[in-house]
Amino acid sequence: MENTDVIIIGGGAAGLMAARTLAKAGKNVVLLEGRNRLGGRIHTLEHGTSLEPAELGAEFIHGDLPITQSLLNEADIKYTHASASMWKYEDGKFIAEGHVIEHWDEFLESIMQLKHDMSIEAFMQQEFSGERYGGLRESVRGYVSGYDNADPKKASAFSIRKEWQNEHEDAQYRVEGGYYTLITYLANEFKQAGGHIYLNAVAKDIDWGQHHVTVSTDIGITYQARQLLIAVPLGILQAEVGLKATLSFDPPVDYYINALKSLGFGAVIKVLLEFDEAFWYSDETRKMTGADLEDMGFLFSNEAIPVWWTQMPVHRPLLTGWLGGPPAAARVHTSDEDVLIEALGSISNIFKIDIAKLKEKLLTWNVINWTVDPFSRGSYSYDTIETAEARKILSHPIGDTLFFAGEYLYEGTAMGTVEAALTSGLRAAEMLLDYE
């Protein structure tokens, strides 16, 4: 049994940010991570024959984000612009960005006037029903499912409105060497400040009282502390107790867990396909499509795997596929091999290349279904109509003893991002220090 000041469960961005902050403030901290690696939903691979990094999890810095970029600057980790053009493949044609969705201005004007929150699906059915608005409804559902990973029947219309109000053409960046370089930096800083990290430590049972916590792992090792910070993904806290990596509390904290369950947590499948050449830039593709895709960053379609992106501004033969929201959630029993077949089918339809030829050109592939991953059980959070009330409960620790951190507790405009996780981890650590 190990006795310490603070136990942190979860070695993702939020947990490590909190761990570093607490250790540097003089706390004795033990961090327990159930996986055999740190990073959580950050998972950088040395990919394929090129051995260049590829991201199975978080990939972009969406705009100029203060905590993420200040940490990268502090660690002397470079990040580069990843802005590039957007294209849509529709009805057999490639359409450059700037394509206006029919009735979009009407939709924005209507949602800005909405007085009472409801789901975005309910709003569309109320204000934009009928065949005339079919394309608009499909576009909104696609955006909410893809970008927010959300179920339109649950996602808050107010939250989506806020997101669109704050949407501007910020630069996108990628971290050189992958996001895992930032995770490594935080972990090293934590260890240098005296912190201890245990991998393959799957926390299971939490017995707690005022300023006293015992955490038992699935193999019976126990840790004791005055305070506990829980920095696992929301999907773990929403899952049925007894499943792998879920947590059992004694005494129960049902009031808090019920608030957590009222938040939205998305689903996503990510596909990495590395080919022997970046054929989407070739003269043959240019002739076939009638479009110059030289600077193509993102490609949207109605295929089974609808969203694809390149490694622009680098012309690398890697395509990343993205399927989010209810369509991803529906594939919890779909094998990685079957997702690969869907992915190759999508690319085949878009670029008019025979699947057999695509398979010959394919060097490496990876599929990650974050929804079936037992240590995440989903992608990232989104607001439901109950979220605002739930966050009032979630913003306070339980008995000055149990604290929570994660991107789902973030209230700014960079929802569902590494920035959100880092911000929450820092805030939780500062709050914990105030409750000494």
From TrEMBL:
EC number from the UniProt entry: 1.13.12.3
Database matches in Pfam families: Amino_oxidase (PF01593)
Origin species: Mucilaginibacter rubeus
Single annotated GO MF: tryptophan 2-monooxygenase activity
Keywords: Auxin biosynthesis, Oxidoreductase
Protein's pathway: Plant hormone metabolism; auxin biosynthesis
Record field: catalytic activity: L-tryptophan + O2 = indole-3-acetamide + CO2 + H2O
Listed cofactors: FAD
Family recorded in the similarity comment: Belongs to the tryptophan 2-monooxygenase family.
InterPro entries in the cross-refs: Amino_oxidase (IPR002937), FAD/NAD-bd_sf (IPR036188), Flavin_amine_oxidase (IPR001613), Flavin_monoamine_oxidase (IPR050281)
Domain (Amine oxidase) ranges: 14-78, 115-431
Binding site for FAD: E407
The name this protein goes by in its record: Tryptophan 2-monooxygenase
GO biological process: auxin biosynthetic process
Domain of life: Bacteria
